[in-house]
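Posting for a labmate who doesn't have an account.
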Amino acid sequence: MVSVHPFHWTPAQGQRHASLDTRPGGGYPTGMSVKTLCNQQLTAENTDLAWLWLTCPDCDVEAHRLAGVPLINEPAEPERRSSGRHARKRSSVP
């Protein structure tokens, strides 16, 4: 399948990243070094488990920009999510 976008996704270093590097058929193989959209040089890990990792937020923003598609649900700041959850728990305790 030919991608309509100039980037390709690959798991690397605990997250799914996107890259503009030329992608071999079947994807970036495990062990291949790729330059990511978040400006890191990382080693691809093309395994079933690795594809379940969360997406790198910086690669996600840049991929959306390159695709001309706005981010609809930008990730909330972890501190806010955590604070809100803990604040509700504390308020329910007598």
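Reply:
Got it, the structure tokens are right above this. The radius of gyration is 17 Å.
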